[in-house]
Amino acid sequence: MDTLQERAILVGVHEQKDEHFEYAMEELKNLAEALDVEVVGEVTQKMERRHAGHYVGKGKIDEIQNYYEELDANLIIFNDELSPSQIRNIEQELNCKVIDRTMLILDIFARRAKTSEARMQVELAQLHYMLPRLVGLRASLGRQGGGTGGGLQNKGAGETKLELDRRKIEDQIAKLGHDLNHVKDQRETQRKQRKKSGTPVVSIVGYTNAGKSTLMNQLLKKMDGDNAKQVFEENMLFATLDTSVRKVELADNKEFILTDTVGFVSKLPHHLVKAFRSTLEEARDADLLLHVVDVSNSEHDYMMEVTNDTLQDVGVQNVSTLNIYNKADLAEIPYPKVSDNSIWLSAKEGKGLNELIELIKRHIFGQYTTCKLLIPFDRGDIVAFLNDKANVKTTSYEEEGTLMTVEMNAADRKKIEEFIISH
Ligand SMILES: Nc1nc2c(ncn2[C@@H]2O[C@H](COP(=O)(O)OP(=O)(O)OP(=O)(O)O)[C@@H](O)[C@H]2O)c(=O)[nH]1
Ligand SMILES: [Mg+2]
């Protein structure tokens, strides 16, 4: 397919109460560039509230039109999600291809999704978004354009040739919902099994591009050397869209499960959060969250706020959390440094990992207890089990059997209760 280079003008309304407007516009530019769209201009307007009919004030529409022609643009991207009537009205007035922040994010997700579950989740979000906007979108997407189009030119929604047919879209939504439920059940079963095994779960969460996958890889490398099964890390928005689950085994026979998942961004589309809910919910059952923050970004407080709000949105509450201030190498901050539940480190350089592991251990192995056991000589299986699963501190051979002092978790302890002689 012949793809025309897209040249976009960004349009944003700066509402009075919004303190993060400049950053939101900068992020919009990054999102556009993540789709190879060239940003050629920007129009902003200060208003008390966005205009219900056409997002910006009426006079601003003419200004956008002039700018559009002058800069030879072929696309206009709005900084917020446009309502169905806003899309229709702006379309009519401007007579050009119009997309909004939501379509942009959906499109990025559509391109990055790798597993079938992630693809289905994105497609579901796209269809939900499209359904009430068919009229406006039909006009907009019918126009000559390049790569972006609310995912319609991508695999997934695009290849199923829905032709914006309402009935077909509704059927497809129902089908995806059904298929996703099935995947969700499987995931639930796995989660339950993990829980039953008593192995603590540590989940990495945070804003997109904060360094979550880099941290996961470094932790795995530290344990398994270069044989570690790495996850994908990249300097781009939404490099990760799926949950990766790995087991981390520590030197003292303690182990935990580490998960990496999709990152957050401000104004994450509501339908996307909904579609990805089951992925995001994984964090709800975690024993500990590692909230990774790019401390070198001047907006990192805001990014933390967005992450916390999104987590709350999907019902992740009251899970103990460590704040990981990452990329300290790019900030003027001494590192590694630990203070209460916060740590400053550099995942990329691998500096601060030992301190982080200590901090993690302190949180998740709190329920570990030490006890003394006497195991008859004919129960070599128990001794082997303990050597494999527990942190064995002393072993001596007495007349009645093997005497061991071990530190272990509650689940394993239950299994060998009959051999405990003192605590
Ligand atoms: N300088 C520096 N760069 C880092 C550090 N940690 C990660 N990065 C870089 O930041 C970029 C993003 O890293 P990822 O690990 O992919 O980030 P992520 O949080 O998984 O991002 P998403 O999956 O997109 O949400 C990569 O280019 C990393 O090399 C760090 O400590 N210092
Ligand atoms: Mg990632």
Structure description:
The chain is α/β, with parallel strands linked by helices and 423 residues long. The protein folds into four domains: 7-105, Rossmann fold; 113-138 and 162-198; 199-365, Rossmann fold (3-Layer(aba) Sandwich), CATH 3.40.50; 369-422, Alpha-Beta Plaits. It contains 14 helices and 15 strands. The chain has helices at 21-33, 58-70, 84-94, 101-112, 116-130, 134-142, 166-197, 212-224, 270-275, 277-281, 300-313, 353-364, 380-389, 410-415, and strands at 7-15, 38-47, 75-78, 98-100, 201-206, 244-249, 255-260, 288-294, 321-326, 337-339, 342-344, 369-375, 391-397, 402-408, 420-422. It has a seven-stranded mixed β-sheet. Strands 2-1-3-4 form a four-stranded parallel β-sheet, sandwiched between helices. Strand 1, helix 1 (21-33) and strand 2 (38-47) form a beta-alpha-beta unit. Helix 3 packs parallel to helix 6. It is elongated. Mean pLDDT is 85; it is low at 143-147 and 149-162. The structure holds guanosine-5'-triphosphate and magnesium ion (MG).
What's a concise summary of this model?
By secondary structure, the chain is an alpha/beta fold. The protein is built from 14 helices and 15 strands.
SSE inventory with pairings:
Blueprint: E1 7-15, H1 21-33, E2 38-47, H2 58-70, E3 75-78, H3 84-94, E4 98-100, H4 101-112, H5 116-130, H6 134-142, H7 166-197, E5 201-206, H8 212-224, E6 244-249, E7 255-260, H9 270-275, H10 277-281, E8 288-294, H11 300-313, E9 321-326, E10 337-339, E11 342-344, H12 353-364, E12 369-375, H13 380-389, E13 391-397, E14 402-408, H14 410-415, E15 420-422
Parallel strand pairs: 1-2, 1-3, 3-4, 5-7, 5-8, 8-9, 9-11
Antiparallel strand pairs: 6-7, 10-11, 12-14, 12-15, 13-14
Helix pairs in contact: 3-6, 4-5, 5-7
This protein binds guanosine-5'-triphosphate and magnesium ion (MG).
